[in-house]
Structures are given as structure tokens and as C-alpha cells.
Amino acid sequence: MGNTAPNDGYTYRGRGLLQLTGKASYQEATATLRRDNPDAPDFVAAPDEFIGAEWCLAIAAAVWAARGCNALADQDDIRRITRAINAGQIGLADRMEWARRTKAVWF
Known about the structure:
The protein has one domain. Helix content is 55%, strand content 0%. It contains six helices and no strands. The chain has helices spanning 8-11, 23-36, 56-66, 69-74, 78-86, 92-106.
């Protein structure tokens, strides 16, 4: 997770569309976004930017792509997508149910 200071757990709590957690995830989001957009903020220095309308979708899309989630989604592998994004399995049943409902609408 990369948390080192006493308040890092709270400061770098799950935020954004993917609920990324930990200082290392905020650092990764900064580096990933800055490859294509050098003006992206430093999310470690300004963690609340993570949920702002200007950046939340860009962060989610960049991290999703960087972690190979498209291929996992094509395989319908919700468990591996969950591990790729945030490792925890809390809420897995809900994610699987929402995936089922979404597919019922789109397919």
C-alpha cells in the first residue's frame, strides 16, 4: 500500500470510481496519468483531487488499462479484476451480481 506516515491510512483511503486505496495507488495514478497529461495533479500531494469531476474518470480509465482489466473483463473474470484493482474481496458478490445485471441489459 505504501503507507508510511501515521495518517496515511486515512489520507489515502479508498477514493474514486475504483476505490483505489493506499499511498502507492495514488502515486501510480499520478505517474500513469502524467504519461499522457503532464498537467495532471500530484494525487499524493492533493488526494482530494482523486474524486474531483476533472480527474475521477481519467484515473479510473488509466488504472483499468494499466492493470490489464480489459482482457480480464473480456474473460468475465470478476475475481481477477477485483484483485487487479484493489486485492480485497469485500463486495465481490455484489460486483458479480451487478455484472450479471449489466450483461442482461447489454446482451
